[in-house]
Amino acid sequence: MVKINENFEKIEASYLFSTVAKKVAEFQKNNPDKKVIKLGIGDVTRPLPKVCIEAMKKAADEMGKADTFRGYGPEQGYDFLRNAIVENEYKGLGISPDEIFVSDGAKCDCGNIVDIFGENNKVAVTDPVYPVYVDTNVMSGRTGKYIDGKYEKLIYLPMTEENNFKPELPKEVPDLIYLCFPNNPTGTVLTKEELKVWVDYAKTNKSIILFDAAYCAFISEENIPKSIYEIEGAKDVAIEFKSYSKTAGFTGVRCGYVVLPKTVYAYDEDGNKIELNKLWNRRQCTKFNGTPYITQRGAEAIYTKEGQKEIKENIDYYKENAKIILEGLKEIGIKAYGGVNSPYVWLKTPNNMKSWDFFDMLLTKANVVGTPGEGFGPSGEGYFRLTAFGTRENTIEAMKRIKENLK
Ligand code: MLT
């Protein structure tokens, strides 16, 4: 008799965004005349930059000719892209191309990274949190049972209005610490000094920070780090995840990368220091066959002058949407956070409504979809996330409907 991985029995049957999509599909089926506006999952709506399209077309043509055709590429990514990443994202930060691992996106990387860590590591997550970090640790057996809304072995770092959505250092020392800033879902940020506290803490305690910087392109304020390696000492304790999804509209194309400095170590049972760069390389060579050549040429084009101009226009467009959402909520007296260095606006539900009740109310009355805070963890209860990735027209219309229904 085949046995399942029992850890799957500890997890919600459906992934958060799948649950939301299912509820919306059911509503639409029963109300075909309603025009639903989706500001739930953070999926982009602006088309790809033209330079990326041109680069991918050219790469596709190369694939059609015998002398330029390419089969399996390097599992770690082509040199042209690894070099471009170092040159454009990490100049002066001491990162080398062989510390970059190109992939099919940050969601997969954040989920797959657990492969290289022992099962008994203590894991800390902010609360609320991007569910992938929690779910993948449940699946790989690091969290224990789900009791009263929490996994018994996870360390939760609450982020609420009370602490300005800035996690406090935990009482119990974790081995792995997931941090995502600009934060998904709250849209809030840490300053360089605030992030330095975590880097120092990880150094002192021999912990490792898994830093998700997927939203760094949205940072516009001073003194907010776009990479954790801007912080002194981070090269010894941090692994960074970056994505072209939100930066350049690659949610459907799929491309991101992991930065794993050779100076980040963990230990085996005998206390020997092991270079994690080598382990990740080994893992990728076995389980991943590289990001498609065409995709990597598209990603490389983002770093041209024209590419930078086009992605900035798209990011500014989304940031203007975020402003429209924030201002609209303010007008009707709803407290909202984030949305300045981030595409996400995190609002406090009116009259302390439960976040799934607020979801139902917004869907049925305003026909607007958002993401209930509780889906991101227990401290997300009473909050709700709206994304600025919609079209301008839909964002304006959604706010008009929200104002009409909530004022
Ligand atoms: C989100 O809505 O939180 C993101 O789209 C999820 C993701 O990037 O996978």
Bound molecules: D-malate
Helix-strand sequence: HEHHEHEHEEEEHEEHEEEHHHEEHEEEH
Cα gyration radius (Å): 21 Å
* N→C terminal distance: 58 Å
The name of the CATH topology of the largest domain is Aspartate Aminotransferase, domain 2
User: Which CATH first-tier class of the largest domain would you pick?
Assistant: Alpha Beta
CATH superfamily heading of the largest domain: Type I PLP-dependent aspartate aminotransferase-like (Major domain)
Number of domains: 2
Decide which structural class fits the backbone.
Answer: alpha/beta
Q: Share of helix among residues? A: 25-40%
Overall mean pLDDT stands at: 97
Major beta sheet, strand line-up: 2-10-9-8-7-3-6
**Low-confidence sequence ranges:** none
Structure description:
The protein is an alpha/beta fold and 407 residues long. The chain folds into two domains: 143 residues, Aspartate Aminotransferase, domain 1 (Alpha-Beta Complex); 252 residues, 3-Layer(aba) Sandwich (Aspartate Aminotransferase, domain 2), CATH 3.40.640.10. Helix content is 37%, strand content 15%. The chain has twelve helices and 17 strands. The strands form five sheets. Strands 2-10-9-8-7-3-6 form a seven-stranded mixed β-sheet, sandwiched between helices. Strands 13-14-17-16 form a four-stranded antiparallel β-sheet. The longest helix is centred in the last third of the chain and has 27 residues. The radius of gyration is 21 Å and the shape is globular. The site of D-malate has 6 residues, from loops.
Concise overview:
It is built from twelve helices and 17 strands. With 407 residues, it is of the alpha/beta class.
